[in-house]
Structure prediction request, 300 residues.
Amino acid sequence: MASIVHVTDKDMIEFHRLNGNDSFNFWRAGSKMKFTDFKVGDTLFFLAKGSERKREKGIIGYGKCRQITSCSFNTMWRKFGTLNGYLNKKSCAEAIIKVNKDKKMPEKMTCILLEEVAFFNSPIYLSEFNAKLSNKLESYTYIDKGNQCLSEKIIMKAMSFGVDLWTSKLNEEEFKIKLYQDAIRQSCGFIYQKIKLNETKMLKQLMRKYNEAKTGEFINGSQADSLEWGKDTIINVPMLVNDFNKIQTIIGHITLFRKMLTDINPEYEKIIFRVLTQNIQPDIETQLTSLNIEYKKLSD
Prediction:
């Protein structure tokens, strides 16, 4: 999983915000400069020109990548229209030419279709988290580096600003729930990159069926561990082979996952970890209970 901040025009984002667009095309002039580690399911934060505070640009929202394609400008406009961030084709073309280094229309455009977009009430600055971005940044950079999950901190900070009721399709409570869940998604995806388990084909198929039945969702980067929302937030970890060696691996995985999660935010201590299994031996059941790990038979 990757999270990036991408320099963008504040007016374009403002157009989407005022029109209540929670899904739109985030375009990039040209198609030759590829992302090294950004794909479907990852998060793009809007680093806005025009939001500077002491020369530092602010982050004013984010969206989840649903699709990345390339096409000509004419095809892009025909496909997305005003979801490109401009009222008409002419003004969109002028904006692209203005930001393109060659000052002309590129042969191809990169189209990043974003969904589940959230707009912040006020800009958020990375310096608030003792992080720095170069004022000369022209395109994008990755923000979750080392042991710091900045994307989670940005989203949690946005929660304190409340919701823009004029533009949001959600009420204030729904908006806060969305941000809170997105913050957990960011944290889990960030952690899973570091502690990924081997995932067999059978395990993936089993969890795909379970998530469809329970409206769960895979943690970004995994096809086994999943998030389940409800009264409680649950992280499900599947286990097919019910033996001592396997349970040791699962317990180690959950213990480390829980520790890294609470290191990011102590509030996540209340998240429930649950082992999903087809059957469970009494001694393993006892071990899990003693470690505050729930379990559930997939047949239940």
Observations:
- The first strand starts at residue 3 and ends at 9.
